[in-house]
């Protein structure tokens, strides 16, 4: 019997769980279905195209653009792993000072909408860029414009690696340090031990993060647009804004097909057959002594933080003080309500997503039934669909299915859940896989019901995953634009819709304050959230 | 201080002086007082209005809505802003589902208005509402009315070129010897696509494709938007480009000494004048309020606001465009139904085929 | 490998009502049958010890009783109520059966005190506090109430696990190698203490152990398992002195066998003649049979001599004594235990003599 | 609690060069000093056993030697090279020291075979395969090469951990309770096997155990730890028969003490007079001192009688024997071991007599 075969006998170890398991599977499947159904409206749109659909979908240009998108996805995903994993290791395992600070810093780029970042980068570089102007006194004459495929890849990497960072962190926090110690005494150096022991165990976490990065990249419109790379979403967007909704829907379905492929790839490396890495003796987080390398290594988060956060803040702040390009007139005063609204919906979305994701994630971690796997994967469709496409689908869906909810807060929150719940599922599933089942069994023999055991044992143990999931949903909701624009109740403005409005109006300087508020608020909430995570983060080996 | 007031029906309503509605800057100084109907002469706005307003210029226009709410304490607007085309498609769907959310749609381009009109999701505006606006800037059946215009233009650098160097038709651009690698454009920008659509409608698909190819082969430079195109022209990085007229004015207003001026082609797509306009959404319970609101948008103060703050072409004869812009009737726009600009599919296909993806 | 003889029922085997009954219980994992139609009873208030080689299914048996595994076949009854069979399955939390896990399974997110309190959280705070501190006292960890489990030593973890499983005072408690990580003196102390508690509160217990001394000294009965099935169950003395199979004989204590033919009321063996009445259950009906007689280290003495009947091939120091492994000239190994004062050197030729003061067990000689 | 007398150096103590030297090594966790200026040497090819109560710092000591903990103070040397002191710290992977973890630490993502192969992955495939299968044979898990660790029983896991730590043939191997989860026969077999391998390959080993028999029977030397420091280190016989502290005496084997005054070349104790020459190291200089003489269960015999000098307060069946705990009339507890054939009942009055065949150890009487 192979290890894989053996593991299939693991699920439902507490013997009476099969019935409940089936129930939970059905619940998970139902939730997943609810999340995916709105996308069904895309099919309705496509039907309008009739026979042309095939031609359009397979035209050479369509395929060429698709290929470019896939290439971008590959580059950005690889880049995010290369940045995110080392940063996670650094902030979890290394003996660096002010860990919390570096953690928040490293996660913070997620709070900045990547299109703002792209905008700042484009504005800052090039012959007349803000950066050049600022550095001219120092004799810097030109900085090459960062744009095109490289630029888009760079910017997307800088703003999406936190997905990998956060999910990897959650895995590392639940890692049993004695395994690495065992490897070290078997003469593996740090790197080898990392490669052969740590990596295989955090791989589900890394894969979960990489998946989010890949799908984000696939679905992002703003960044490639600003960077002038024609990617598939832009292709879709152009058709949508050209009143070709059916064509856009068709292309969106194609995009979802690509998503399915990515999901399939992820489940190969991810948790599917190599999961259940529970090991009983958890000796807490391992500590790596960096010695003299300690400070040089901190340059990595510093550099990434500086590009990702400081650059846009500085660019926008410069515009704020100098008036910046655009109209001198026009007021469009900033109101703190926008900030409050952002926080409020983001909070609701995070809570709702956690509630929805929990059964799906638990079921997928505990069972290897096809249905559970499908329930786990299907919601990614919502995440991979470009925001605008999803928004359109949701408009049709809600107008047809629940007109009373159209343009209400509940629908908006539902949209966020549809869009972002996979982020929560991924990280929660990863930590659920790491919970040693005998702990739950111990709770049961101590008289706790299944639910009681879940509440008092499983829940606290998967807390890092829940927290990470909630944080991801929270942060991404804070910066979500397309669905917010289309589905928000009239008169309901958030930081991002305000930023969008002033940017669109060319009042770039005015974006500075809300952008700053967005980053600060996200940073603070992140700090609060990550503070909860540290329960298992004892520096036992200090 | 200085209230024009007095005529108002309600003592509590005070209309601010004209300067409040005007922008500031070099090119605004010394304008004559606008003609047309003053807000003072219009009934007061009151009640609540749901407004869909397109992004982009709409962000600036919305400032005027805020001013109206300041003037009329009983008047409240709930807005939702998104891309005009996306709002247009939403409106059609909402109306089809019998759940319209907004009373009035203020789009920043005519194609979105045309899309709603073509899909019968409007209620006609009152005759008195559309009456001051030239008929070319109205929809059939009073479906919509333009409130601010913008013209395609050719910003050029006055240090590098004379006005006479700029060809009179866009057709000549690829073959103008002094232009290789120098024409700036922003093909992803909506107004540019409208321009190509217009060319397609006027000259047919093949010549349009050929023109795009010729431009590309002649080294036209891509920029993210037309504001950047105008900036680059002012900087002298490129001597000439294609852009909506107000971007150059924006640059000028900030940098009065910039060697930047505008040329206009005549009678072809390059001279297209597109409009932002308002439309009454079918099923609104507030038909009269919408009419009155749109009349406010066409008031002297509003038109002065649009002209001087966003440098748009005013839609009523009594108000001059800003600076030394030719007036609307001095322009020679092509003869084209603005609503037809919403048919972008073929345009995009042509652009793609020409290697100039939009 | 091991033939079974008739079992003599132990005198007290039917004293008290069975509280726990296993009947043909079977559990397989894939091709591997971990527990193979296992049947035994545990009587109220009894302490039964499960003994058996590594991997023979002891932990699985406990898990089946606790309700953490569902039997593929067979029936488990608690107080006469079926808790698991084909159609029934009572959940672990409803069985009132405590389990100490072989690998402790301490909750890493709770402190030592909270771990112990886990099963009694529904009691009033004060009662919980008192019970936790009593139990931590019992296991010698009074100072560790606030410590995190992963800062504990192996033995400390095991003691916390013990305290935690005792806390809710279940009717039946299953202890999977509860003392394996403890040093001898602590283990001795703890097991006496635990036995005292169990007896005082009338709790029924099944304990798995690899420590024979523990099995023999504290159990009311011992059950020996092998490869998923039960070899023998009975009082410690019975199992030790009258094993029903060679497996049990060899598994508990060091066992040597000497062969001989039973004739004329005696058995002639390489270490001397044994009268039939010194061999338990060797009735006249077996006359003429070839039998193997079980001899324990303390039944034999080895005297150094140049002729003799064997040779010392191994010796082991145990503190108070040496155990010599002697290869008999007739083939076969026997063990002799000597006081540590009289040492024999390796390879020394010796004469091994019987020196018995109790009846020996026997098995038919294997072909 | 326990005074220390002079240590008699063991004869072979300086035979071979030390391969491992600990010098004043200290390691604290917060307020708790787990290892307290510990100093000892291990000589090349030696098998040293660490014994000590739960939580006394044994595992921490091994972790310090392996390089998994950094000493707060003191120095560790391997083959004369400093591997840890104030300024130096050689990483675990560069020490060539293997460690079997008390809690196994098997890699859950690797199969049993892959776990064993982990440390020798750089060898040619064929060699790896051969070694893995040899080792799995050794630990009796030849059929389990493809199994996942978490489907194994406790003892199976432990055996995999053992095989894994042996695979790379390190110079020094540290075994943290390598056999605690194994049944007695397997344990006996494994430890003989492991000892044979260690001796054949000349590997130096430190083994932690709670099994005294194991400690005494397979070790070249035994080191007894208590509360972070070393109590005594020496050959098994020395430590057992001549403990340098009461702690060691009580920790290894059952120990009773009888008190008396040393006068006229003899010590008069409640269990009879002992001539001074039957007591090790009791020189004339101690004349007149009150001393406690260490008596082990096998040094005493209890004879049932109605007068006598004590009373049986506890008895324990161990299979071959009973150990009686007798409370002497003069106070104090002693243990007597009797063949299981002669049974004394609880509460029986007995006369306890000395029956010694070796020199006894003594300690000054405590106040
Ligand atoms: N990481 C740690 N943090 C805090 N205390 C610790 C840590 N590791 C060990 N200790 C403490 O140090 C002491 C010695 O622990 P160690 O594991 O060395 O004991 P041990 O002798 O191996 O015990 P056992 O026989 O029970 O395994 C114990 O009291 C333990 O609680
Ligand atoms: N979940 C499982 N999947 C597959 N095989 C299993 C599983 N659990 C136990 N086994 C197998 O069943 C057999 C019995 O295991 P069990 O844990 O009951 O043994 P044990 O008697 O407790 O042994 P030990 O004394 O070593 O702890 C072993 O061979 C083991 O490998
Ligand atoms: Mg077991
Ligand atoms: Mg230990």
From TrEMBL, chain A:
Gene Ontology cellular component terms for the protein in this record: plasma membrane
Q: Which Pfam families match?
A: BPD_transp_1
Where, per UniProt, does this protein localize?
Answer: Cell inner membrane; Cell membrane
Q: What is its main location?
A: membrane
Looking at the record, the residues that make up the ABC transmembrane type-1 domain are 66-266, 339-529
Membrane topology classification:
Multi-pass membrane protein
UniProt xrefs under CDD domains: TM_PBP2
Where is the chain membrane-spanning? 20-44, 65-89, 101-122, 197-218, 247-265, 297-320, 340-360, 380-398, 453-475, 512-531
Choose any GO biological process term that the UniProt entry carries and state it. Answer: transmembrane transport
Q: Supply the Gene3D superfamilies for this chain.
A: MetI-like
Q: Record's InterPro entries?
A: MetI-like, MetI-like_sf
Q: Which family does it belong to?
A: Belongs to the binding-protein-dependent transport system permease family.
Please name the PANTHER family in this protein's record: FE(3+)-TRANSPORT SYSTEM PERMEASE PROTEIN FBPB 2, INNER MEMBRANE ABC TRANSPORTER PERMEASE PROTEIN YDCV
Q: What is this protein called?
A: Iron ABC transporter permease
Organism per entry: Salarchaeum japonicum
TrEMBL record, chains C, D:
Instruction: Give one GO molecular function term.
Output: ABC-type ferric iron transporter activity
Q: Which organism is it from?
A: Salarchaeum japonicum
Region (Disordered), start-end ranges = 1-24
Query: Can you tell me which family this protein belongs to?
Result: Belongs to the ABC transporter superfamily. Sulfate/tungstate importer (TC 3.A.1.6) family.
* Enzyme Commission number(s) of this protein: 7.3.2.6
| Membrane topology label | Peripheral membrane protein
- Compartment(s): Cell membrane
- Bias (Basic and acidic residues) occurs at 1-18
Matching entries from PANTHER family are given as: SPERMIDINE/PUTRESCINE IMPORT ATP-BINDING PROTEIN POTA, SPERMIDINE_PUTRESCINE IMPORT ATP-BINDING PROTEIN POTA
Residues annotated as domain ABC transporter:
20-252
Protein name as annotated: Molybdate/tungstate import ATP-binding protein WtpC
Q: Please provide the record's keywords in A-Z order.
A: ATP-binding, Cell membrane, Ion transport, Iron, Iron transport, Membrane, Molybdenum, Nucleotide-binding, Transport
Any one GO CC term of the record: ATP-binding cassette (ABC) transporter complex
């Amino acid at each position: 019997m192979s290890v894989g075969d053996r593991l299939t006998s693991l699920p439902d170890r507490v013997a009476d769980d099969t019935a409940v398991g089936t129930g939970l599977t059905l619940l998970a499947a139902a939730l997943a279905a609810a999340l995916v159904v709105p996308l069904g409206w895309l099919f309705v749109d496509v039907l309008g195209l009739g026979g042309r659909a095939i031609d359009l979908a397979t035209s050479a240009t369509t395929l060429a653009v698709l290929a470019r998108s896939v290439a971008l996805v590959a580059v950005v995903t690889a880049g995010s792993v290369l940045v995110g994993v080392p940063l996670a290791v650094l902030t979890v395992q290394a003996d660096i000072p002010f860990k919390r600070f570096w953690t928040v810093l490293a996660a913070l780029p997620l709070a900045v909408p990547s299109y703002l970042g792209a905008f700042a980068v484009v504005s800052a570089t090039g012959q007349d860029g803000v950066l050049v102007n600022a550095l001219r006194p120092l004799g810097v004459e030109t900085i090459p414009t960062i744009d095109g495929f490289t630029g888009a890849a760079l910017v997307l990497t800088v703003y999406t690696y936190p997905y990998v960072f956060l999910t990897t962190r959650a895995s590392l926090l639940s890692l049993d340090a004695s395994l690495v110690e065992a490897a070290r005494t078997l003469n593996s150096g740090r790197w080898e031990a990392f490669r052969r022991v740590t990596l295989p165990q955090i791989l589900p976490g890394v894969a979960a993060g990489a998946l989010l990065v890949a799908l984000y990249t696939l679905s992002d419109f703003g960044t490639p647009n600003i960077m002038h790379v024609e990617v598939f979403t832009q292709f879709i967007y152009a058709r949508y804004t050209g009143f070709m909704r059916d064509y856009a829907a068709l292309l969106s379905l194609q995009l979802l097909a690509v998503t399915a492929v990515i999901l399939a790839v992820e489940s190969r490396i991810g948790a599917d057959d190599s999961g259940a890495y529970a090991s009983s003796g958890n000796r807490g987080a391992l500590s790596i002594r960096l010695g003299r390398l300690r400070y040089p290594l901190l340059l990595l988060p510093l550099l990434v933080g500086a590009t990702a956060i400081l650059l846009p803040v500085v660019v926008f702040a410069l515009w704020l003080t100098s008036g910046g390009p655009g109209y001198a007139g026009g007021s469009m005063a900033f109101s703190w309500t926008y900030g409050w609204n952002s926080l409020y919906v983001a909070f609701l979305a995070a809570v709702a997503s956690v509630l929805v994701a929990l059964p799906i994630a638990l079921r997928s971690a505990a069972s290897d039934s096809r249905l559970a796997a499908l329930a786990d994967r299907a919601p990614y469709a919502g995440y991979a669909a470009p925001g605008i496409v999803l928004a359109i689908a949701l408009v049709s869906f809600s107008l047809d299915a629940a007109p009373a909810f159209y343009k209400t807060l509940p629908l908006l929150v539902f949209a966020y859940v549809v869009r972002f719940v996979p982020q929560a599922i991924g990280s929660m599933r990863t930590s659920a896989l790491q919970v040693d089942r005998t702990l739950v069994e111990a709770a049961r023999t101590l008289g706790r019901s299944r639910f009681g055991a879940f509440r008092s044992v499983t829940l606290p143990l998967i807390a890092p995953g829940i927290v990470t999931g909630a944080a991801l949903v929270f942060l991404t909701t804070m910066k979500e634009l397309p669905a917010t624009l289309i589905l928000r109740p009239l008169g309901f403005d958030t930081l991002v819709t305000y930023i969008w409005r002033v940017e669109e109006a060319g009042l770039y300087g005015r974006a500075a304050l809300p952008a700053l508020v967005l980053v600060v608020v996200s940073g603070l909430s992140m700090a609060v959230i990550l503070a909860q995570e540290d329960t298992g983060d004892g520096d036992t080996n200090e | 201080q200085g209230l024009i007031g007095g005529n108002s029906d309600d003592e509590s309503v005070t209309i601010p002086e004209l300067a409040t509605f005007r922008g500031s800057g070099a090119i605004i100084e010394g304008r004559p007082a606008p003609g047309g109907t003053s807000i003072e002469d219009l009934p007061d706005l009151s009640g609540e209005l749901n407004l869909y307003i397109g992004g982009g210029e709409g962000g600036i226009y919305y400032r005027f809505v805020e001013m109206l709410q300041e003037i009329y304490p009983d008047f409240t607007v709930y807005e939702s802003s998104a891309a005009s085309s996306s709002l247009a498609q939403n409106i059609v769907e909402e109306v089809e589902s019998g759940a319209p959310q907004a009373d009035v749609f203020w789009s920043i381009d005519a194609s979105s208005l045309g899309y709603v009109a073509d899909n019968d999701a409007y209620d006609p505006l009152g005759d008195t509402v559309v009456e001051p606006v030239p008929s070319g800037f109205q929809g059939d059946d009073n479906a919509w009315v333009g409130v601010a215009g913008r013209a395609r233009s050719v910003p050029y650098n006055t240090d590098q070129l004379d006005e006479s160097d700029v060809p009179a038709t866009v057709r000549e651009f690829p073959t103008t010897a002094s232009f290789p690698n120098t024409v700036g454009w922003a093909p992803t920008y909506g107004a540019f696509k409208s321009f190509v659509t217009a060319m397609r409608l006027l000259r047919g698909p093949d010549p349009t494709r050929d023109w795009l190819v010729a431009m590309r082969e002649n080294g036209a430079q891509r920029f993210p938007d037309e504001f950047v195109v105008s900036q680059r022209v002012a900087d002298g990085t490129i001597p000439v480009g294609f852009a909506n007229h107000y971007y150059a004015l924006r640059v000028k207003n900030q940098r009065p000494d910039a060697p930047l001026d505008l040329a206009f082609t005549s009678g072809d797509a390059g001279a297209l004048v597109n409009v932002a306009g308002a439309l009454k959404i079918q099923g609104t319970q507030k038909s009269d309020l919408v009419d009155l609101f749109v009349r406010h948008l066409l008031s002297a103060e509003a038109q002065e606001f649009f002209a001087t703050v966003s440098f748009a072409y005013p839609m009523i004869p009594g108000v001059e465009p800003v600076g030394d812009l030719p007036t609307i009737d001095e322009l020679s726009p092509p003869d084209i139904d603005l609503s037809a600009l919403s048919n972008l599919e073929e345009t995009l296909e042509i652009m793609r085929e020409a290697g100039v993806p939009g | 490998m091991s033939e079974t003889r008739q079992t003599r029922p132990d005198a007290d085997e039917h004293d008290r009502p069975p509280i726990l009954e296993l009947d043909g219980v079977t559990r397989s994992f894939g091709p591997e049958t971990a527990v193979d139609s296992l049947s035994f009873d545990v009587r109220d208030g009894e302490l039964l010890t499960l003994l058996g080689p590594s991997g023979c299914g002891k932990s699985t048996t406990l898990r089946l009783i606790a309700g953490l595994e569902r039997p593929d076949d067979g029936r488990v009854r608690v107080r006469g109520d079926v808790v698991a069979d084909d159609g029934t399955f009572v959940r672990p939390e409803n069985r009132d059966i405590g389990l100490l896990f072989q690998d402790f399974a301490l909750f890493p997110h709770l402190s030592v005190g909270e771990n112990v309190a886990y099963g009694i959280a529904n009691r009033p705070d004060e009662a919980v506090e008192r019970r936790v501190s009593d139990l931590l006292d019992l296991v010698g960890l009074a100072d560790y109430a606030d410590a995190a489990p992963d800062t504990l030593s192996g033995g400390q973890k095991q003691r916390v696990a013990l305290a935690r499983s005792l806390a809710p005072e279940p009717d039946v408690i299953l202890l999977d190698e509860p003392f394996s990580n403890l040093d001898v003196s602590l283990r001795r102390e703890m097991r006496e203490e635990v036995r005292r508690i169990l007896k005082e509160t009338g709790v029924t217990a099944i304990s798995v152990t690899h420590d024979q001394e523990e099995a023999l000294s504290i159990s009311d009965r011992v059950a020996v398992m092998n490869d998923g099935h039960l070899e023998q169950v009975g009082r410690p003395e019975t199992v030790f002195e009258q094993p029903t199979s060679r497996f049990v004989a060899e598994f508990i204590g060091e066992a040597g066998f000497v062969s001989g033919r039973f004739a004329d009321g005696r058995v002639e063996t390489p270490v001397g003649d044994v009268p039939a009445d010194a061999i338990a259950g060797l009735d006249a009906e077996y006359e003429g049979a070839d039998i193997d007689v079980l001899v324990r280290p303390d039944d034999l003495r080895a005297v150094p001599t140049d002729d003799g009947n064997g040779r010392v091939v191994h010796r082991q120091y145990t503190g108070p004594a040496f155990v010599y492994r002697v290869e008999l000239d007739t083939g076969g190994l026997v063990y002799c235990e000597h006081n540590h004062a009289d040492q024999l050197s390796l390879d020394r030729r010796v004469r091994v003599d019987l020196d018995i003061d109790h009846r020996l067990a026997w098995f038919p000689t294997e072909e």
